[in-house]
Amino acid sequence: MKRLFIAVDVELSDEFQMLTQQLQSDFKHNDIVWVKSGLQHLTLRFLGETSESKITPVANALSIVALSTKPFELQLDKMGIFGSKYAPETLWYGFTEFSLFKNLFEKLEKELIGMGFQKNYGNFVPHITIGRIKKIDNKKQFWKIIEKREPQFTQAIPVTHIKLIHSKLTSEGPKYKTLHDFVISGF
Fold it and tell me: Where exactly are the structural domains of the chain?
């Protein structure tokens, strides 16, 4: 069994990297696990523990989806929090408009369900995780800083490849290995 997910590589712009550094400084007295720069990605679908026998069929499905999708761009333009106002859990960057990415997800979802994967329930919110919140000392101050730091800039995120990635959780954080990489090249 391998812990797998499907994602698009992301390299944050200097502006978003500086914003992340400002947030790390702002929240240095809180317990937040920050995602290392080289590990940030845009998850298309988390598969979880997957048997070795399903890796090739998943790769075949990714190939079909990649060949039937035109490359496109998303505009990274906002910051958000998963969890509640009283118990924030995840800090992320995301998109106001993501209909093309949702279309890609829906094509892939159809293929995966046909293979026996469970339907992905819940809201579809494409995002790039930047921090996992363990404990916030002053929630009122936390939310004031979040409002103040909302990005006033955008970054184009090209969606030209989709990758099947093996995620191994270690005491130093996750280790990622790309198993398959497919060029999005449809017409």
Answer: 2-183
Q: Name the CATH topology of 2-183.
A: Cyclic Phosphodiesterase; Chain: A, (3.90.1140)
3-state secondary structure 60-123: HHHHHHHHCCCCEEEEEEEEEEEECCCCEEEEEEEECCCHHHHHHHHHHHHHHHHCCCCCCCCC
Tens-place pLDDT, residues 72-128: 999 999 999 999 989 999 999 999 999 999 999 999 999 999 988 999 888 899 999
Q: How far apart are CA 163 and CA 43, in angstroms?
A: 10
Handedness of CA 112, 114, 117, 119 (dihedral sign): positive
Structure tokens given for 4: 């797998």
